[in-house]
Amino acid sequence: MKIAAGLVLTALVVSAADWRPATESELKALIPARASVEKEHIETEFRTASGITDGKDKYIAGVVLITAGYAAEGKYSNFLIVQAGIKIGDLSLSPGEYVFGWRRKDEDTLQVKFYEAHSGKFLGEAAARRLSRVGRIESFRISPPKDKASIQIGRFGMSYALSE
Q1: Residues 46-101: pLDDT tens digits?
Q2: DSSP 54-118
Q3: Residue 10, class by beta-carbon neighbours within 10 Å (0-12 exposed, 13-18 middle, 19+ buried)?
């Protein structure tokens, strides 16, 4: 039993180590200029695009939405493409397209709510905590598991884990 558990754990570690930041050309091929969100096609701000890949045609990537003038304004801020399952807090996201928005819970925490992109169905929420690091702040960034599996929203971040 211990050997089998060790083999599974090793397989997950090796798999996570294969993930790397996606290149700009990979992101351009993946991120739509307009994301389908409910019944609208909302512009994306490509300069904020970030993602990771396993190098074998699976990506986890996202981008900031330009929601001014759309029904989504104030509800969603980001579009997220998941091609390999991930878990953020207690929320599991299987391969698909998602949107999320956030509101400040307190000085050190954002409440981040996730929805299916096409239907707008609420899926769950996670907390993003204020990052203690000093340096460059990006509006949106996904770090690969080998660095520190996190999704950064400005000065806040939330950890994730690969679930496949």
Answers
A1: 999 999 999 999 999 999 999 988 888 789 999 999 999 999 999 999 999 999 99
A2: -SSS-EEEEEEE--TTSTTTTT--EEEEESS-EEETTEEE-SEEEEEEEEEEETTEEEEEEEETT
A3: exposed
Residue 146, classed as helix, strand or coil, is helix
Q: Read off the pLDDT of residues 86-119 as tens digits, 9 standing for 90 and up.
A: 999 999 999 999 999 999 999 999 999 999 999 9
- The per-residue pLDDT for 31 is 97
Tally of CB atoms within 10 A around 80:
24
> What's the farthest any 2 CA atoms get from each other in the chain?
57
pLDDT over 80 at 32, yes or no: yes
Q: Determine which helix (DSSP H) or strand (DSSP E) holds 150, and give its type and residue range.
A: strand 150-153
The model's pTM is 0.87
Query: What is the H or E stretch that residue 152 is in?
Result: strand 150-153
Instruction: Give the C-alpha separation, 108 to 138, whole Å.
Output: 17
